[in-house]
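stage 2 :: seqdesign
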């Protein structure tokens, strides 16, 4: 399995933050993956998500992390920005 799984909105946000525009996100051609066509933007065009977007995605990210807890055992307490020492164990099902 993969160490990271992304929803389409999270994937688009990640691409935008990295300075890419998602030209096409195909969720139908492959049953377990997105097929993405993206274009690198001018550095000044890269965007950061606003806090409302981050908070809206947080519950789904937590759900996805918890679904993988049996495989990996721990998830970051506050996502990728969390201090590496701030981790908690999620109970396996």
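stage 2 :: out
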């Amino acid at each position: 399995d993969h160490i990271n799984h992304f929803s389409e909105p999270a994937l688009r946000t990640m691409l935008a933050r990295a300075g890419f525009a998602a030209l096409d996100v195909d969720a139908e051609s492959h049953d377990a993956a997105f097929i993405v066509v993206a274009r690198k933007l001018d550095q000044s065009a890269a965007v950061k998500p606003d806090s409302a977007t981050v908070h809206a995605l947080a519950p789904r990210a937590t759900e996805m992390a918890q679904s993988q807890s049996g495989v990996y055992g721990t998830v970051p307490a506050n996502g990728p920005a969390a201090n590496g020492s701030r981790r908690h164990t999620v109970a396996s099902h």
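stage 3 :: structure notes
- The mean pLDDT is 74.
- The CA atoms of residues 15 and 21 lie 7 Å apart.
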